[in-house]
Amino acid sequence: MDQTASPSTRVTTAVRLGVGLTQGVLLYLLQHAQDLKAWPATQPLLFAPLVLTAAFAPFVILAGVGALRRTSLIVWGLIAAAFAAYLAFHGAWNGVDGDKMPDAPVFLAIAVGLFIAHHLIQPAQAERKLVASYHGYFDVTWMHGVQMVLSVGFTGVFWILLFLGSALFKLIGIEAFQKLITEPAFAIPATTTIFAAAVQLTDVRSTLVRGVRTVALTLLAWLLPLMALIAAAFLASLPFTGLEPLWKTKAATALLLTAAAHLIVLINAAYQDGEDAPPVVLKWAARLAGLLLVPISALAAYGLSLRIGQHGLTPERVFAAAFVVIAAGYALGYTIAALRPGVWMKGLERANVALAFVSLALLIALFTPIADPARLSVNDQVGRLERGTVKAEKFDYQFLRFDSGRYGKAALERLKTSKVAGVAARAKAAAALKIKTAPVIEKIDLSKLTVYPVGRALPESFLRQDWRDDSGSGCIGQGSQCSALLLDVNADGKDEVLLASGASFDVFSFDGARWRKTAETPYVCDAVDLAAALKAGTVLLAEPTPRRDILVGGRRLFLVPAGDGCAGAESKSDRPKGPPVAPSPLSNAPF
Questions:
Q1: Contact by Cβ (8 Å): 232, 261
Q2: 577: how many CB neighbours lie within 10 A of its CB?
Q3: Among candidates 380, 394, 401, which has minimal Cα distance to 423?
Q4: Contact predicate 529/538, CB 8 Å
Q5: How far apart are CA 166 and CA 168, in angstroms?
Q6: Residue 437's pLDDT is what?
Q7: Who contacts 397 (Cβ-Cβ below 8 Å, separation ≥6)?
Q8: Are 438 and 581 in contact (CB under 8 A)?
């Protein structure tokens, strides 16, 4: 290989340190411009691409120098910068109310996209092939993953030592060192330069890094049998429990996808590059885990389809759909690999490489207008409104105003002239809002509360009362899961309503016109299981006991018997209370 393809250690060191220092200086200058509200910070569509390009594009240079030929490295660096700049531009363009920076998912998308793309390019370049061998992909990807973790750790230790040094100097009255390290002009370039130095240090000790990688993957691999057993037991329990408990979590798709991701990572930890067969236990655990991905992915897809059918698309559900597609791809590939005779799980290699390309394509689609989650969600929600699937009074206009960027605002403008009854007025009201407000609650239904003693019912006046004002109880709200106890606590011959909130009661009394909260039981150190006590019928009134409290300036101090000091009431400011808030028409579940 020529000198260009394999620069000396001295050259790679100079390049990496120079890139790290340049990155830090650029980031500092951009932050300084933002602090001064000067150009280019005054131009969001320019500022965001500059910041994200400076933050992420240098990493492909740090990773590629010494491994890619000079021309390839320059071309790939420019492509990476264009990729980061465009995603940042689109994120800022579709931002909310003129935010200068895109949302966090854009940052994550750029980082993940560049990581995947770089590790498809570098092994192929090294082998001079369009698609490299699986060993090449495995070696470079996991090598750089471990390098990144070690470099972040090295940078963190560097800052710990700096702060320790500043504390030592401060002990003797010298604060200049602390002021220096907290200055952005020092902190930002120092961080990026030290990170670049760490990358170089780990790169020239690649054998040691590979050793760390092997140990880490081996340890992870032995968690695979446990995870496979947990997943199998979970799926085996579903015929007995049904799916209803799963859907009640309101996060079923997210949990199932998380389980699938853990199985995928652990299967790969056991397989590694496929050159050395693992113990028999890991072989069978990997086959089982590959098969389990099918029902787990299917359940995630089914759960997501139910939520979309009930409440339509949201940006979160669009992202979830993309994750489901990827999980389904892994499930199919790993199932084929597990069932195909021959070399153990050999088909995993082709599945991993293919899904890397699929993941990159999906990522680009999601963060460009091709499949922008905000655009798809707005189109779906407005379509549901226009088709009559959602009534005008139930539609979430604030989603268009605050949560879906330019696409939502454009749709809201169109709805201002809608001919559907009640839509135009509500759209105009939402467009005029400056901040997001809680949805208006038309009526709080408390008829579903569990009432004790069994067989009793809440008073009609309690159920009919308008509870939209602050009740002082966290139990008064749509979908409340609290229990109610009817008990005459003040011996006036009329039952009060006691709402069980956690380990305490909120007491409501009727004054002839309204039910009002008149008392509450204090929180205690040893939490009482009110739900179990109510079911057992062991919640009773004690006989009156003589007690005299102490008055201090008109305020009452309660005497607590010795040994019960922890059973006193907490401050009312610590109690859960506030006006009831209705769930969004799009549902309060992430998926």
A1: no
A2: 18
A3: 394
A4: no
A5: 5
A6: 83
A7: 412, 415, 426, 427, 429, 430
A8: yes
Identify the CA nearest to 192 among candidates 13, 10, 25.
25
Contact 423, 385 (CB under 8 A): yes
Whether the Cβ atoms of residue 315 and residue 373 lie closer than 8 Å to each other = yes
Give the pLDDT of residue 324. Answer: 98
Q: Check if the beta carbon of residue 509 is closer than 8 Å to that of residue 490.
A: yes
pLDDT at 523: 63
Residues 6+ apart with CB under 8 A from 85: 49, 50, 52, 53
* Neighbour count for residue 186 (Cβ, 10 Å): 15
Distance CA 499, CA 522 (A): 13
Q: Comparing C-alpha atoms, which of 64, 71, 69, 80 is closest to residue 203?
A: 64
Beta bridge partners of 551: 556
117: left (phi over 0), alpha (psi -120 to 50) or beta: alpha
Q: Residue 515: what residue type?
A: W
> What does the pLDDT read at residue 527?
62
User: Can you give the pLDDT at residue 439?
Assistant: 67
3-state DSSP call for residue 522? coil
- Confidence at residue 447, expressed as pLDDT on a 0 to 100 scale: 80
* Rounded-to-integer distance, Cα 170 and Cα 193, Å: 26
Of 399, 328, 325, 331, which Cα lies nearest the Cα of 363?
325
- Closest by Cα among 474, 401, 459, 463 to 435: 401
Q: Helices 252-271 and 206-221, interaxial angle, to 10°?
A: 120
Cα–Cα–Cα angle for 437, 440, 441, nearest 5°? 140
Question: Is residue 189 within 8 Å of residue 21, measured between CB atoms?
Answer: yes
- β-bridge mates for residue 517, sequence order: 508
- Please measure the distance between the N-terminal and C-terminal CA atoms of the chain and give it in whole angstroms: 52
Written as one letter, the residue type at 441 is I
Output DSSP code: residue 574.
G
Q: Which residue has the tokens 């020239």?
A: 204
- 124: Cβ–Cβ under 8 A, 6 or more apart, which residues? 130, 131, 132, 136
Asked whether the beta carbons of 567 and 528 are under 8 A apart, the reply is: no
Model confidence pLDDT, tens digit, residues 528-575? 778 788 888 888 888 877 778 888 887 877 776 665 545 444 444 444
- Which segments in the chain show pLDDT lower than 50? 1-6, 565, 567-583, 588-590
Pairing of strands 496-501, 483-487: antiparallel
* pLDDT (0 to 100) of residue 221: 97
| 334 vs 332: CA distance, rounded Å | 6
pLDDT in tens, 231-269: 999 999 999 999 999 988 889 999 999 999 999 999 999
The CB-side HSE value for 219 (13 A sphere, CA atoms) comes to 5
Cα–Cα distance list, 21 to 162, 440, 559 (Å): 18, 53, 65
**Measured CA distances, 140 to 80, 202, 213, 220 (Å):** 18, 13, 11, 19
